[in-house]
């Protein structure tokens, strides 16, 4: 048995390690903010100076202050000065018992001229509106209706938003359809140029029997989008009607996902069931529960209505984000894989919250069995996992990682995780592997996952070509043209180095002639170049990822791009004729808003990524390991951003931005118990002056 002194030493060690991780998170944010100007003006770490140190210091102070405030709040300690807390409590007492009509509010708070104060009436009106808002969002179908009404202008005025990806998917399916109908088409050949050459996919990966479907943009989405476009061409002689229909379907799916998750976080619908019974050995766990019938304990318990739901202010802020922020507004109709994955992730994240809240430690019973997941929630977890898997290739890593953590953390419900997480992963990912191995589908080129390595090689080839070792150059010669890599290098995006695209293609990646054996020496050549040029290699790494954690960095590609790019505004049959100028105005307004210092940060995903990282650091310091375990997929998504082929690409940040408000609500709820305990501990009784002290604040009786 460890002694008390040993326990204290272990506690101090844990505190030191947890705070160390928190400080490291703040240092990473500060570093990304400090080096931002170096890459904005095209220099590099060689020009790092005192100005960058000053930027880092300011960013670290702000980040650590946020972390410190979150930790104090999570422990139930006071964050703001006493004055603000006392004024708020007093104002709430003044408007208690507010009438249920605006007229009654005015008569109550403005009729007595001697004691009237407009602030009381305004606050009372806000309270009344909040009650109505709570009633309008107390179930999922009301929330669904609210999202549909709030977003109705998007598909009706903007129709659809898309880029090059869906055009490539439609082209792939069209070529495959021509093959299925017996039309002869070019395949492998030096003078042929087929859809697989656009991104491109190395010819050594192509099966001997001609096939034109690839997993470059996820095969299920390619077939789905391509089929809609084919039907549209059959009836209307253009792809436009199919694209508009796909945008409308994604818009409906987005409204459903956001409504379902908002209902779970706002109203906790599973707690209305009154499942379980009291555990009298742990009465402190039941501050939110009442017995259904004290004469019949077997009837179970029911949650106290006053503690069931989120407050009106919380609902308003979260709903306002989805209704106004360009990230959410434009993503609803943007036909590319990332928005679809993001909305499916929101749905998935909501079910995870239900699993977290019905964990046996959060909702104990006498027999020691955890609450079973509702059938609708089990189906939702299964279906959201399927949509995530068909929309993003990295989804299976996230789902499998989450499943393993959940089975370790919640072993008694292992069947739920096997059915809802592992089964769809095996079926969809396993089915895709089978299709690729059988030659029916061409798999994605592994060069797509080497964005950082390619940028490092290309930057060295551009700024220090003499620094490339001779052996490394020989090993890379069958794979890349180093001169073309240097010419096509762009620090924000790795696609030009990969020869991606159809306009002005530079053949830096020799996808036509490279072989599988040639790729075996790629990692060794890359490592030789990095060792010989460490500073340039670090420049390439940071230039491609710093913007995701620098709130002052403007996005490389923002979501408004998909609204008014050339594909939407020019290169189609009739979509560009519908509200052409209005689309430019909407996208221009969003871009101008995003360029406003500080006020524009709320329109950028890197603000929510940075704050999410700090919230995760606060959970580490607070040792909320069970909460942290189901938040780790957010950290994995940040890793995906760092390894993505482009810097500060907003569509990669959508999942974290969409769930950020719900994450804050969950953090507040978990901190509530600590705050209540701190208030009880700080009670010191009533003084002779008729004062009492609650929660550190002196309040009149």
UniProtKB/TrEMBL annotation:
Alphabetized UniProt keyword annotations: Membrane, Transmembrane, Transmembrane helix
Transmembrane segments: 21-41, 53-71, 140-164, 187-206, 218-235, 241-262, 316-334, 340-357, 378-408, 414-436, 628-646
Keyword Protein transport: no
Pfam families referenced in this protein's UniProt entry, alphabetically: DUF6020
Lineage top rank: taxon: Bacteria
InterPro entries: DUF6020
The protein's name in its UniProt record: Beta-carotene 15,15'-monooxygenase
Organism the protein comes from: Bifidobacterium adolescentis (strain ATCC 15703 / DSM 20083 / NCTC 11814 / E194a)
